[in-house]
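Our preliminary data section would be incomplete without showing what the modeling component actually yields. Below, a chain of 394 amino acids is followed by its predicted structure, encoded as tokens that our downstream tools consume directly.
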Amino acid sequence: MENDDHRSIGQRLELFHIQPEGPGQVFWHPRGFAVYRAIEDYIRRRMRDAGFREIRTPQLLDRSLWERSGHWEKFGREMFWLEDDERSFALKPMSCPGHIQIFNHRIRSYRELPLRFAEFGACHRNEPSGALLGLMRARAFVQDDAHVFCLESQIEAEVARFCALLKSIYADFGFAEFTVYFSTRPEVRAGSDATWDHAEAALAAAARAAGLACREQPGGGAFYGPKLDFVLTDARGRDWQCGTAQLDFVLPERLDARYVSADNAPARPVMIHHAVLGSLERFMAILLEHHAGQLPLWLAPDQVAVLSIAEAHADYAAKVGRELERRGLRVVVDDRPERLPRKIVDAREQGVPAMLVVGTREAQEKTVALRRGAEQRTLPLAEAIELLAAEATR
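Predicted structure:
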């Protein structure tokens, strides 16, 4: 349905827009960016708890790096690039070569492995104008890029821990079901057949150890290695490929990643490329359509609406709003000279999941009337704040 399209939802909820002067690029409005940051902050915390250390790499890098990695040959036509008098540069379409540069910046010991990096990488790809589709397919987007540098003996444990992380995160976003595809070597690829045989066998073993029942997707791998693709099923039964775990023996060799082994000899690390959401923009579009714009409280642009019954209650409504904001909740106070039913309808249309109605009795007794869907009950203000703050925590 047209009204369930994320672009219609975004316009109705005043979340974002895209205009001709910035094709495939998003103008985030305050309410939309509040949701975006809630997603970003949640992923940041979960990745930190999983042992990943956040980094930031440049967006503009010399063409020579992309040629060495193989991305220029594979994606050159999709990359934005520019030249000065002496050199050619490209805006990064992905973050993996930059992460290898941080790994290579000093001599690494086997004792440091596994080494886990994560980045909200701002990427640009010159998608054809006819392929652009709101947040689903854009030219500028942010990926939750993560990379693990590890020993071969650590592959199974690293893949298993990441799969468990994915399952937990998807459940928090409201996706109970997902399918895993095992994507094998594409026709155009880097690396020898022996390298691919080794990588596919190692990733298949890791998937079995993680308890995954995978469907094979022949030829769907990245140009540098096989991958596991995690496909979510939304409320309308549609499938969306989001997460990935890619096993890579090729880029560490091409970009000369090394560590010092237990034998005091140079050795190549294995590189595992990870993403939980993929593109944050695309994942937000999926979320909006999955929830039909009615996001759960922890994600909603405005989590609580404080509604005054009459003008005389505006001061107490403002006080309630300040108390909620002190607990980190996103709040809107509606003290307009409108009838209460009008305010309730407006809050619902803006996707606000919780409403606190305040009138004479509430102001006198320091209570609020909590409305959540069909639920209505009166609570002491402090209790209502604790209840909502706990639900907002992820």
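The chain has two domains: 2-290, 304-392. The chain has a mean pLDDT of 95. Preliminary results of this kind motivate Aim 1 of the renewal.
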